[in-house]
Specification:
With about 950 residues, the chain is α+β, with helices and mostly antiparallel strands. The protein contains 37 helices and 23 strands. The protein is about 40% helix and about 15% strand. The strands form four sheets. The protein has a six-stranded mixed beta sheet, with helices on both faces. Strands 12-13-17-14-16-15 form a six-stranded mixed beta sheet, sandwiched between helices. The radius of gyration is 28 Å and the shape is globular.
Length: about 950
Amino acid sequence: MMDDMPDSLQVREIELSNGFTVWLNEDHNQPKVFGAVVVKAGAKDCPDTGIAHYFEHMMFKGTDKIGTTDYEAEKEILDAIADKYDELAACKDEKLRPELQKEINRLSIRAAEYAIPNEFDKLTSMFGGSQLNAGTSYDYTVYFNVFSPQYFAHWAELNSERLLNPVFRLFQSELETVYEEKNMYSDMMGMLAMERLTHRYFSPHPYAYPIIGSTENLKNPQLTRMRRFFEDYYVASNMGLILSGDFHAEEVIPILEKTFSRIRSGKAPVSPSVVLPDFRGKEKVKVKLPVPFVKMMALGFRGVPANHKDKVAINIAMALLNNENGTGYLDQLSVNHKIMAAMSMNQGLNEAGILAVAIVPKLMFQSYASAEKLVWREINRVKKGDFTDEAFCSLKLEQRRNYELALEDINARAKMMMTLYSQGKSWKEYQEEMSGIDALTKEDVVKVACKYFTDNYLYATKKTGNYPKNNLPKPDFEPIVPRNGDAVSEYAQKLKELPVKEVSPRFVDFAKNVKKVTLAPLATLYLTPNPVNKIFTLRLSYHVGFIEYPALVQLNAYLPFLGTDTMPFKEFRNKLQYLGSVLEYDVEEHKFHIKLSGFDEHFAESVRLLGLFMQHVEADDKQLKQLVNEEKVAAKSFFKSSEDVAEALFQKVKFGNGSSKLTKLSLKEVKHLKGKELLELFDKVKHTECVMHYCGTLGESEVVDTVGEWMNPDEITLPASNRLRDLQVYDRPKVYFFHDGKVSQSIIYGYICGDTLKDERTRHTSKLFSGYFGGDMSSLMFQEIREFRSFAYRVRAEYELPFRRCPDKSGCFVTMLSTQSDKTTDALEVLDALIKDMPLKPEKIPAVRQALVNNVNNNFPSFRELSARVSQWEEDGLASDPNETYLHSLLATDMEDVDAFYHSQVQGRPMVYAIVGNEKSIDMNKLSAFGEIIKVKKEDIYR
């Protein structure tokens, strides 16, 4: 299977002179490089402390060379701060602790006189980087971004320097931001329940503890322990460099040796091995979830680590229970209404794995015992080998397809490389694992099913309720505002001296990159070659969505359960599955998508089956019960998620009664739906203007003939309606407030309705304004609200543009942040001041401009995305890639243009806030200063 792998899927593994591992993957299909540093140290190596996670945050604060104007002077104060944190950790006197924290605050303000905030982020952007981020898992930590190839030397220098001597500056404010992150997680529905279930499953292993750490440990951080963590684990033999993209290995290896070989050698400590004990029979546990009416349960079995030899066979066993075509044994329990839902899961961490089956019994009268018995019956079928050879072979095809799809584009492939390296696998071993799918036998699958699905398991059931939240009160700290926000370090000056090869941006060529064929006046087919594998996708995008027809949401959920007048559901889906094909549906505001994927050798037969389905689909009213049940569950759980409520509240502010949460079908309407009505709606969809996208290896004539024969393009006669919603216009400031007494954080959206934007230059300026105000770590909003004052973990702002094809529609300015409830008015005061009187800092504009240029250069579409990007631009009235004129325009846009846009579209206009929060923790009198408070009820935002 892997013998004919193209060059873009080959990975070269080398080791630098200091033992640092490097994985190199050349792929010239997109003009970018994905670069990542993976450290084999994560939360399991410092259980429950959160050190690995907040150290990851501190890695953005710079080094002894990056982010400082005078490190020697700064270091003296930073050392004093570290000593004070040690005192704080040892202090048990609750009266003395606030004084220690205030002393740390005073020292932090002094140290900030030397700090250059976000210089690492600025340098990344200055030298072609975008999508800068990091993540901490149980087993590893990763730092990554995408960058333009001509800056390879800069990237290597900067990202190796980062690892030499990180400095923990601005720690107090960043730790407060971590508290905000923890508060955000605690408000997510089910997160606290999952923490408890994870603890019960994995104890006594370190996986039992949350990655972010406990509140108690976060209250007592020690910079000295964080320094030890760095010294122990951030050594060359414990780190890997992952590079995938547009470079030549022989040219970059000397650069990598020069830069990353500077990392100190050494061996990381080996954490003590913890073997999880077997469960003893059926071990029962209850977990609280704030969802009444719905029963939920889970069966948790001991699984295998990520690099275990049984993994591939287990994946097939799990696919026999659930698969993409819905033909698995557990899928059939749902289709046949034996239970409401059941989903199996196989997750392998480095030192342990979990096999689980989550079950939702029928809403009325079905007991946990009854649902479990049905699930065990299906599991036992797998254990007995009660499955056909055809089903077995088809699921091997599904696994093969998914393996290949995971390697298609640079970003996805690089993330797979990161994962494999962190697991201790080589690329060759991964290739062998892929090849091993074909060699699997039924006996292999039966063997692992019997081995792991035993009578010893964790039996978890839901009880309605909430867990208490352990939140920290707002600290009485002064803001830590560095004086040198736009200073430049000596290191940055030296980095500028590295040579840069002149490279022209790559733009999409509508004529060369895709082939466009008109099948009928309202049916267009785009064809794009697949240079990587022999997997095709055929996507039909009909120009009608749930804004035009709200019932399309239900149609989208209904179609996957249907067959035809001659092929019942199971027969139809099995035929697709035996070909290695899968059929999916999706609905958006103004689009309904049907996506068929599979192997090109079976393209014609797969399209024929899809055509037969579309022409002869048969209603099944029994399946409507599933839609009703899903709507019941959605209605019961909706107001338990503050994120969902905030989105609905914002939609109400933005669109009024045109909010999709208010135009959607009510539960009563869903109950009255008939299958015939939904298929009549499907008939309207099939006759509406359609853009079809084929990506694969077949020739144009073969694809055109097959699609033309089975997709009936001549019957597509209804033009797109383009029923775009109007934005709400307000004449005075208002605060729409939804009270939720259970939340720790307030989620705050801001909204200003602007004017129409009829010229392209103004549209381009809006992008520069958005980046300047709330785009990245160097934006006004990020620095003033998050970095300097720690009022929020999430902050963003953007001027949203209407479609070019709708010149009569307005744009709008949207902000969003989430903050601890008792910081709500503090955060709003800062945000409101920025909006009312935006500071002008022209020295920021070059960096913002460069970030926008990088986003263009690093966002050339992958081969499967090309035709969708072209058709989207053409729908908007464009005949060529708009990024070409956009880049030219950016070079001529400056602070004066941004200020003029701000005065024209934002300043002086009524600001309307949408807030979900706990009014008992918010000074509502202070809140009224931001506008008339309108208290919103459930029925005002959700139908």
